[in-house]
Amino acid sequence: MDQFLFFLVAFLAVSSAVYFVFARNPLYAILSLIVTMFSIAGMYILLNAQFLAIIQIIVYAGAIMVLFLYILM
Predict the structure, then answer these.
(1) I need a labelling partner for 5 at 20 to 30 A (CA). Which of 14, 29, 35, 43 fits?
(2) Residue 42 · residue 69 · CB < 8 Å
(3) What is the pLDDT of residue 64?
């Protein structure tokens, strides 16, 4: 079950990263990058690295992406 969840979250991370590269609208690109960061945090949780997952969410998905959205708006 853990392996299935890991591959599911990994597929979500890779597919949202590919969408980030090919998105024409910058807002959709940033939102897909946020999904990528959350799915990477989910992979950290599945690998029992909870501290890295929390730091990933706070720093990258929280602060950096909000800054990108603020600059875009």
Answers:
(1) 29
(2) no
(3) 86
C-beta separation of 23 from 29 below 8 A: yes
pLDDT digits (tens, 9 = 90+) for 52-63: 999 999 998 888
pTM above 0.90, yes or no: no
CATH of 2-72, one of 2.60.120.260, 1.10.760.10, 2.40.30.10, 1.20.120.1200: 1.20.120.1200
Q: Is the separation of the CB atoms in 20 and 37 below 8 Å?
A: no
**pLDDT score for 37:** 94
Give the Cα separation of 37 and 43 in Å (integer): 10
Distance from C-alpha of 53 to C-alpha of 39, rounded to nearest angstrom: 10
